[in-house]
């Protein structure tokens, strides 16, 4: 048994999952989920999940959803038995056989949009985006440090950056 989202019909395991689904979807995408919450539950954004759950179940249809929850889909089994290969040299984040969201191929352009019913995204879908964001952040940090130059110090104790950068911010030391 579970609840169908009153907005989109996505199955949720219980009232708290339904509350989280509605709130996260409203905050991330706005639209119908946000309008539904605004129309029915005053102050929903300030509520914690158990409190919001008490309110949303009054408006949701209880229903039986065969094979939609993680513990029944043959995906990631948290009941003691693993259903993915842990080969030697295994490291998380390297696409190692997890089948979240019904086994979609990784590299989906918008992992949040294409999440499986219930809001479970394939974490491998985020891998390239995460790497790109981190690389950009590192580059912006390096530029910020270069532009700050001249004070002779760094905030994180990385003396290498300070000695390689000339007084005018030129890494060659030429003025």
Overview of this structure, please?
This protein has a three-stranded antiparallel beta sheet. Among the domains are: 2-63, no CATH class; 123-175. The protein contains five helices and three strands; from the N terminus they run E-E-H-H-H-E-H-H. It starts with a strand and ends in an 11-residue tail after the last helix. Helix 1 (15-29) crosses helix 2 (31-40) and helix 1 (15-29) packs across helix 3. With 175 residues, the protein is mainly α.
- For the secondary structure, the number of strands is 3
Give the averaged pLDDT, no decimals. 68
Approximately how much beta-strand content do the residues carry? under 5%
Alpha-carbon Rg, integer = 24 Å
Taking the sheet with the most strands, its summary is: 3 strands, antiparallel
Taking strands numbered 1, 2, ... along the chain, how are they ordered across the largest sheet?
Answer: 2-1-3
- Proportion of helical residues: 25-40%
Shape: elongated
Alpha-beta content class: mainly alpha
Number of helices: 5
Distance between the termini: 72 Å
Spans of at least 5 consecutive residues with low confidence: 75-109, 157-167
Region (Disordered): 70-175
Biased composition (Acidic residues): 122-134, 153-175
Biased composition (Basic and acidic residues): 73-97
């Amino acid at each position: 048994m579970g609840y169908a989202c009153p907005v989109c019909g996505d199955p949720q395991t219980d009232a708290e999952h339904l509350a989280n689904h509605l709130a996260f979807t409203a905050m991330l995408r706005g639209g119908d989920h946000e309008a539904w919450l605004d129309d029915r539950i005053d102050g929903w954004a300030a509520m914690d999940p158990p409190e919001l759950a008490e309110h949303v179940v009054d408006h949701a249809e209880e229903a039986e959803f065969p094979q939609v929850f993680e513990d029944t889909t043959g995906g990631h089994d948290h009941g003691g038995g693993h259903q993915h290969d842990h080969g030697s040299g295994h490291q998380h984040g390297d696409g190692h056989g997890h089948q979240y969201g019904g086994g979609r191929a990784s590299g989906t352009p918008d992992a949040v949009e294409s999440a499986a019913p219930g809001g479970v995204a394939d974490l491998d879908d985020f891998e390239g985006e995460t790497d790109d964001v981190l690389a950009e952040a590192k580059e912006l940090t390096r530029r910020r440090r270069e532009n700050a130059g001249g004070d002779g110090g760094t905030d994180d104790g990385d003396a290498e950056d300070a000695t390689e950068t000339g007084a005018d911010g030129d890494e060659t030391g030429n003025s």
